[in-house]
Amino acid sequence: MSKYRFGVCDVILRELIDRSNVHIFNELQKAAFESSFSAENVTGGNRMFPLTSWPKDKSVKLTFDNAACDVNMIHLTEGAITSKASKTLMKIMEVLIPTDGVITLDEVPTEVLVEGFKVATSDTPAKGEFKLGTADKTVTFAPADAGTSVKLVYSYNSGADSVTNTITEGTKGVPFEAFINENIYNENNEVVGTHNIHVYKMQCTTGTKIDTSHQTPTVESFEAEARDPKRTDKALWEETYDWFTK
User: What CATH number belongs to 3-79+168-243?
Assistant: First the structure.
């Protein structure tokens, strides 16, 4: 009976520096594993008949797009430094000024900027001005500006448990081992086994790329290449077929 692989797989990435850190991605539909090499040799010197030559290294790549949110993914791609503390963030709002001129923000602002408006110098804003409430989350406009559509930007302090990932000039992605698993089906659409790929050591070759296309899940791209795991058997990766028995 024929056997099929449908191309939906799970990927498990386990960090090698701290093996308790694991990144799990389920039912990826665009994961690609590629092992290739070039027949061309690397040569030493610029003579017609080189003094020495050796085969080019093999290239092993793993790429996929993931729409699931993994806040720790940036450790693999960028080697981010993580901290937990309140941070100053910015938020944009596009609103219609009501008849009373009062707009209530979602957070207590530390600063407010309104496109086309100035900060009022008195307690009562004039036309084209706004005043920020010092004890609440309100921004007050002049009644003469009621019905005007405005864009405002305000900064606020996030919660104390906010997680911040910082990228510096010296940070780089941490090495990890990769496990790629997919089911194998027969002609009756029954799972008869699994196809498993294990790459002993990989490291990301690209930084962070996030695709925010309209009306689609925000997709984070991932690309990594195999590194020398320095094993005595010189193995880079292996695949295993695990057949189920009834």
Answer: 2.30.110
